[in-house]
Amino acid sequence: MTHQIHIDQTRLISELQTLATFTDAEPVSNGTAVTRIVFSADDLRARAWLKELATAEGFEVRDDAVGNIFIRWPGTQPELPAVATGSHTDAIPHAGMYDGTVGVLGGLEAMRALKRSGLHPRRSIELVMFTSEEPTRFGIGCLGSRLISGTLDPIRADAMQDKDEATLAAVRTDAGFSGSLASVQLPSNHYHAWIELHIEQGPLLEREGIPVGIVTSIAAPAGYRFTITGFGGHAGALLMPDRKDALCAAAELILSVEKHALATGTIDTVATIGTCDVHPGAVNSVPSRVILQLDIRDTDPARRESVMQAVRRDYEDLRQRRKVTITEELVNADAPAQSSPHIVKLLEETCVAKKIPYKKMVSRAYHDSLFMARIAPIGMIFIPCRNGVSHKPDEYASPSDTTLGVQVLASALAKLASE
Ligand code: GLV
Ligand code: MN
Ligand code: MN
Predict the structure, then answer these.
(1) 201 and 225 co-located in one domain
(2) 342 a known binding residue?
(3) Nearest ligand for residue 99 CA
(4) Do 14 and 97 meet the contact criterion of CB atoms below 8 Å apart?
(5) Which helix (H) or strand (E) segment is 65 a member of?
(6) Which cofactor does it need (predicted)?
(7) Gap between the Cα atoms of 261 and 313, Å rounded
(8) Which of 65, 78, 299, 364 could form a disulfide with 268 if both were Cys (CB 3.0 to 4.6 A apart)?
């Protein structure tokens, strides 16, 4: 029996808009500004609202010790490993309203649409909303999926601190999530398959006029924190020859990162220093300490490491020349992930059957799927976003592209759940 799957576009878009109201950002004129940092009041409100939507639909809801939310539609053989989908609802400062949310609310709508179609899935279908895909608060991305996949040590995770030196252990307890983080890990046979729907966050689909991207691999991210310590003091009285200005050293380090990332000669290497904390941070004080956070990614982790080696050679020189100390702390260095050929083929067949043009592509952004790949066969569906813009308020995906993505997701979930 084939089931007609109808996606309720009006409801989906209105839910995306409602979710965007749980924000800590001031409104802007050029889009929808969303700031939703993990375990902030807005994040907690968004979680409660999502759980209400799921409960209203009769789905089972649970959360784990780090606050990952699991929304389950039991299959006729609930003892079989489930098929799962999902993404995140946290948002970096001053972001947009589609990153992650399309995969969560789109996943929910896919499940509702399948239910409305009269499907009784053999395997259970589960939606996961991951805690802190974004690294804003604790400096490391994909916190929830790292713990699910056993990639992050639970003791190290609980000891991580935010900028106010509050530990994850304290912050999650305050948010109502207690219990050992070790209990978050799921075994590798827990899910039969995993699919994440997400905006592309790059320009290719829109540029080529293709509505669906099928991800074949996810580039490998790494994160480092540099602390540069010099000698500061009064901006008027400390003589230029006597200074060891930590910010001037940091400026050279930032440019070294850019130079070596460009020197690989491939667009597959990207490196960004996106934060710079200057101590004491006063206009009339020579900076004595600077903390930089580096985000570096590559489809080839060996090439990513060779850029780091070149940066290290430069900062050895910097240390000597500027008489500063530089310490480097590894936050994460992850391997790339490959999609499951079976799921890629199934997504291709789904697009062909629905006459939807698609393109196979690499994900340059990371996603929770990078870590779900360690415990399950994965696939990802991308939809276009306007001008390739993401992590900004003018991030936009059209209602029709969003609906099409959810349609492909729903069909794929139904097929995988019947396996
Ligand atoms: C995820 O938000 C990323 O930075 O790729
Ligand atoms: Mn993001
Ligand atoms: Mn995302």
Answers:
(1) no
(2) no
(3) 3
(4) no
(5) none
(6) Mn(2+); Zn(2+)
(7) 14
(8) 299
